[in-house]
Amino acid sequence: MWIFGLILLVCIFLLFSRITIACRGEFRQECQQLEIKVYFYGIRLLGKTLDLSEPKTMDMSIRQSIELFQTTGSNLLHKLNVYHELTVMLLKRLYFRKLLWETGVGTGKADSTGFATGGIWTCKGLLAGYLTDKSNFKERPHIQVIPYFNRAYFQSEMECIVSIRIGQAMYALLKVVRKIPVKKEAVI
Which residues pair with 33 in a beta bridge? Predict the structure, then answer.
């Protein structure tokens, strides 16, 4: 009987424990990568670096890099909109410990650099506002856009640390699995 009680106590302890996820993304002309680390009580459980660059992106111009960045962001927002209810449910359970997102942009011309800077500020502001409204922040997000008026340049770096209770993550995962439609295979 005491073994059952011990197992129950350990399960309750685990369900109320937090896991911390640290993400760092870098988007430049030369490389696009995402680094993800998962911690449980300070012990690193997972560390993975994903190379997001494609062979054709190495020869892209600054304008093409900016367009690819905007397209990627737009696709992400569209997917979040499709699964809005699930996104909100997950965001309510997340605690952002840190959100740092800095972007440097320049087209070589002052007028188009100003236009690109304003567009990036708009996208970042909308996303940061949405996140602060739907989730919990320990400190305010640090968002910055640096214009480079005299040269063609694009770089974006993002660092984010979030935590969630294991029980809430399991609950959210079960809700996601229930809501996402299963693709049926075609019978030939």
Answer: 26, 51
* Nearest to 29, CA basis, from 1, 11, 54: 54
User: What does the block give as tokens for 118?
Assistant: 């304003």
The tens digit of pLDDT for each residue in 27-58 reads 887 778 889 999 998 889 889 988 877 655 44
- Which H or E run includes 168? helix 166-179
Name 56's Cβ contacts closer than 8 Å, sequence gap at least 6.
none
- Rounded Cα distance between 60 and 54, Å, is 11
* Residue 56 one-letter amino acid: K
Distance CA 154, CA 84 (A): 30
Residue type at position 36: I
pTM, two decimals, is 0.73
- Of the candidates 143, 154, 150, 134, the one whose C-alpha atom is nearest the C-alpha of residue 70 is 154
